[in-house]
Amino acid sequence: IHVSEREGSSFSWKHVRDSMELLHCHQEMEAINSHISERKCKDSNSFIVSSDYRVKQICIGEGEPYGDKTLSKGTFRIVRCELAPGAKYPDCQYQGSVLTNRKLLVKCENNLPVHFHGDRD
């Protein structure tokens, strides 16, 4: 596996879910937190509710240049999970919000998304 392929799959693991609801925030963030070397709760994470294939297409024709990043042409549903006020490690509790019709801003390397830089109207 090339480094870029690993980075692409890391992007998918961190940010792409075929299906996800708000009630999954705690469970999904527990998995993310288990891969952080310091013992802490990650403040937030955005999950793109889509197929991995569709998200990868942003880097090979379904996106447009946006500075040194790429903005998706199509829109996506996002579940944003944020650390609940007062929550502290190891009891990392999360609350979620749903965003719809959002364009994705990603960094592409070797035709794969490697960093999620947020979303736009």
Automatic annotation (TrEMBL):
GO terms for biological process: angiogenesis; defense response to Gram-negative bacterium; defense response to Gram-positive bacterium. Residues 4-120 form the Ribonuclease A-domain domain. Pfam families: RnaseA. SUPFAM superfamilies: RNase A-like. InterPro entries: RNaseA, RNaseA-like_dom_sf, RNaseA_domain. It is found in: Secreted. One of its GO terms (molecular function) is RNA nuclease activity. The keyword Protein biosynthesis does not apply. This is Ribonuclease A-domain domain-containing protein. It comes from Oryzias latipes.
